[in-house]
Every structure is written in structure tokens, then in C-alpha cells.
Design a protein that fits this description.
single chain; 272 residues; alpha/beta; Rossmann fold; seven-stranded mixed sheet; 17% strand; disordered N terminus
């Protein structure tokens, strides 16, 4: 227990060196959340991405609290699962993973109940039913998923309606995605970048109120004009069009120097 406390203190102390937009959230972070972020059980590859994803600051910005029910949309490899599931277990909350389909489960390691607790699953896709019983979630989080839905008519609208239905009155929707601003969004967001105004409109049309925006995941180095879209940048580092073999002669140097994309971080609230 003492080690967990020390880890939490270390994370909060290190946050003091971050830019103002980040420290304003991390300074008041829940110690149990800080401990979950600092846990030695997290995958080293995921920890290395914290400097681009700012999990402590993001979850604090989204006002995550003990004993809450959290629904994560499309957890993929489990970056957020490694934080949210242990936090829910430690605080008496509930973590629900919304998967693209019932045939694409979470990685096997998340079956370790001693570490991750009882993870519940549901399905979210273009034709899925309710995420959870209406009005039962405190927080819904979707990170870098929306750009994949834009190319399918009606899909983004369904997503925000489903999120709204899942949340309790006063509940929070947290959104992160690759930010096209200040330039216009290209057709179908085919390069992976979406405009903030587009996301805000989707949310408002579903009934949400824009509660706050954060710059914790901003990257001013991102010029948003790459040969293979946002996927040219880390962590994907794509070197050839989708479906083609990787190009061994592709020079990643300047793209790696940019780092991960410039991202919007938004907090929407379902009115009481």
C-alpha cells in the first residue's frame, strides 16, 4: 500500500513540470487515479505513450470519480482499460468495454480479476442496440474513434445518440480525436482529421451541452498534411497505402520528430 501511495505522489509531483493546461487538471487528481496511472502493471509500450495521451489529466478533466460506471468505446489493445478497470475495482466502480463486435474480445490478460476486477462488455457498432440500460452510465469515453465513423452516413449521429441514451442526467461524454482545425475537414475525414465544430454539432444535435475544451493533447508541430494522412505519424507509422506492403525505403525521420497528432479533448454533459 505504501508503494502505491508513493507512486501516486510521484505522478502528481511530476505533473507540476507540465505546461499550465495540463497541471491545472493533474494538481487536483484523485490519488487512486494517479496510482492507477503510475501502476507498474501497465504495459511499458502504453506508458511510453502517456506523454502524448496524458491519461491522468484527461480523466481528471472528464471528472472521473470513485464508484462510477464508465463505458469505454472500442478499447482496442487496452490502453485505457489498464487504467480504468483497476481504478473501478479499487473504488467500487464499474468498467464496461464497448467492443466493435462480440467476436472481437478484449485481450486475454484482462481476464485477471485480481488486477482488473469484473470487466463487463457490451457492443457498439453501426447496427448495435443500447450500450447499457438507459441512464445508467456516469461517464462514456471515446478516444480517436470518431474519424473512423465519418465515412459511413448516419454512423456518427447514431454514436452520439447511443452515448446520450447511456448516460445518467448530468453524466459526462469525453471525446478525443485528431483535430483538423484550423483547416477544413476533408471529405469523409479520409486523412483521419476532424473539425472541432463538426464534433460539437454532433453532440449538440444529440442533446449534449459542451461543458469544456482542453489543450492537454495539443501538438503544434502537427502540420496535418502527410502522404498517408494522420497514420503517417506515430504510433501507426504507415509507409504505404492501406492494403499494400510496407515500403522499406520510407523515411520516417521527420514524422517521428513531430510525434503523435494534434488532438481535441472535449467534455460534453447530458443536461439534468
Amino acid at each position: 500500500m505504501e508503494l502505491r501511495k508513493l507512486a501516486a505522489i510521484a505522478v502528481i509531483a511530476s505533473a507540476a513540470a507540465l505546461p499550465f493546461a495540463s497541471t491545472s487538471f493533474a494538481a487536483g487528481a484523485d490519488p487512486q487515479l494517479a496510482a492507477a496511472v503510475a501502476s507498474p502493471t501497465r504495459s511499458p509500450d502504453f506508458v511510453a505513450r502517456d506523454k502524448y495521451r496524458h491519461p491522468l489529466e484527461a480523466l481528471t478533466f472528464w471528472q472521473l470519480k470513485p464508484r462510477e460506471t464508465v463505458v469505454e468505446i472500442w478499447p482496442s489493445g487496452g490502453y485505457w482499460t489498464e487504467i480504468l478497470a483497476p481504478y473501478a475495482k479499487a473504488t467500487g466502480g464499474r468498467y464496461i468495454a464497448a467492443l466493435p463486435s462480440a467476436t472481437r474480445p478484449l485481450p486475454q490478460r484482462f481476464s485477471d480479476k485480481a488486477l482488473y476486477g469484473d470487466i463487463a462488455t457490451t457492443v457498439f457498432n453501426q447496427t448495435s442496440g443500447p450500450l447499457v440500460p438507459a441512464g445508467t452510465a456516469d461517464l462514456v469515453v471515446t478516444v480517436r474513434n470518431l474519424h473512423d465513423w465519418v465515412r459511413t452516413p448516419g454512423y456518427p449521429e447514431k454514436a452520439f445518440k447511443d452515448f446520450y441514451a447511456a448516460l445518467k442526467p448530468g453524466g459526462i461524454l469525453g471525446v478525443v480525436d485528431h483535430r483538423a482545425d484550423p483547416r477544413p475537414m476533408v471529405k469523409d475525414a479520409s486523412d483521419g482529421y476532424v473539425n472541432t465544430a463538426y464534433v460539437v454539432k454532433l453532440a449538440k444535435d444529440a442533446g449534449f451541452v459542451l461543458d469544456a475544451q482542453s489543450e492537454i493533447n495539443a501538438n503544434p508541430k502537427d502540420t496535418k498534411d502527410y502522404p498517408l494522412g494522420v497514420w503517417t505519424l506515430p504510433p501507426t507509422r504507415q509507409s504505404a497505402p492501406s492494403g499494400q506492403p510496407a515500403n522499406p525505403n520510407f523515411d520516417h525521420t521527420k514524422y517521428d520528430a513531430i510525434g503523435e497528432s494534434d488532438r481535441m479533448t472535449l467534455r460534453f454533459r447530458k443536461p439534468v
